[in-house]
Write a structure and sequence with these properties.
The protein has about 300 residues and is an alpha+beta fold. The chain contains 5 helices and 12 strands. The chain has a 12-stranded antiparallel β-sheet with strand order 1-2-4-5-6-3-9-12-11-10-8-7. Helix 2 packs antiparallel against helix 5. The protein is globular, with a radius of gyration of 19 Å. The N terminus is likely disordered.
């Protein structure tokens, strides 16, 4: 796949990171601080805490949910789970590859499965942080893969295989416009809420919507001074539209979980872009629904998603 998608190594050696978001503060263990300083994503997109090496080649961390579930029957949405798993996967690759030059590392393809039990989840208290693990394999100087899991009490909820492109900073800067970032002075992360969409339209077999005028704030922390809309953000748009669509198709309020998702990104999305969302219904049964989805800017397909929802 020819994708624009690409890792930025920052030389800061801070041991403790004070977040712009006052509700967030790192657990100041050394590995988390080291990985944060080397990772291309920053607060508020980077929310992982207490990262440590669980076993040789496997790192673990924790994260607290910040996004409302809305239509999700899972205690954490697939969108938010995929965001945190992709970041921990990039941390694993950073450790294994021992990247020295300034580089950008971004997810270009991913396959995700829900492996939890919806029947038992309703009885569990999810006030505690979720647990993540990741291991990785570096294929070359430019390609890598991570296997990631998110769950609770050593019980997995989601598993994902994520593929990354590793692109040197000089090459990435030819793709990404420089937009000087300003700290977002808020006590609420922009990723703690869903993005308002316009012109959401339903037919018997499709959903369309418009995401107008992406701003640097929509890309906060991803990446400082070179904002790019995160892949998980795009997936969140589809998950939100699907929730509205399922309510429309079933003529009632529904709760669902992303049972399976396969996503591929073909072009970067920057501030200033407008995005058209197209979701075509593939199958609709009593408790399972599947869509084929596209994100389009200027008549160019930038993201493809095949997704299956389990309806509760």
């Amino acid at each position: 796949m020819d994708s624009e998608y690409p890792f930025y190594t920052e030389t800061s050696q801070q041991k403790t990171i004070n977040a712009t978001d006052l509700a967030f503060k790192f657990i100041p263990n050394l590995l988390t601080s080291q990985l944060y300083s080397k990772n291309c994503v920053k607060n508020p997109y980077f929310r992982l805490q207490n990262i440590f090496e669980k076993t040789p080649g496997v790192i673990s961390g924790i994260v607290r949910k910040e996004q409302p579930k809305l239509f999700s029957a899972s205690p954490i949405s697939a969108t938010e789970a995929s965001r945190h798993m992709a970041i921990l996967g990039s941390c694993s690759i950073t450790l294994q590859a021992e990247l020295e030059e300034e580089t950008f590392l971004l997810a270009s393809e991913a396959e995700m499965h829900f492996v939890g039990n919806l029947e038992t989840l309703s009885t569990v208290n999810f006030d505690e942080p979720f647990e993540l693990t990741a291991s990785s394999h570096v294929y070359s100087k430019r390609k890598a893969m991570a296997q990631t899991t998110l769950g609770y009490a050593e019980k997995p909820l989601f598993r994902a295989t994520i593929f990354y492109q590793i692109i040197p900073k000089k090459a990435f800067l030819k793709l990404a416009p420089k937009i000087l970032s300003t700290d977002i002075q808020t006590t609420e992360s922009p990723y703690s809420k869903f993005i308002p969409l316009k012109n959401i339209t339903f037919t018997a077999s499709s959903i369309t919507a418009i995401f107008e005028q992406i701003t640097p704030e929509h890309c906060a922390g991803h990446f400082p001074n070179y904002p790019v809309l995160p892949i998980a953000f795009l997936m969140g748009i589809f998950e939100y539209c699907a929730g509205l669509g399922l309510n429309h198709f079933f003529k009632r309020e529904t709760m669902s979980v992303v049972k399976y998702a396969k996503i591929s990104v073909h072009h970067l999305v920057f501030p200033g872009d407008n995005l058209k969302i197209e979701m075509n219904l593939v199958s609709l049964e009593k408790d399972v629904c599947s869509f084929q989805c596209k994100g389009i800017k200027k008549d160019i397909t930038v993201i493809l998603l095949d997704v299956v929802f389990q309806i509760k």
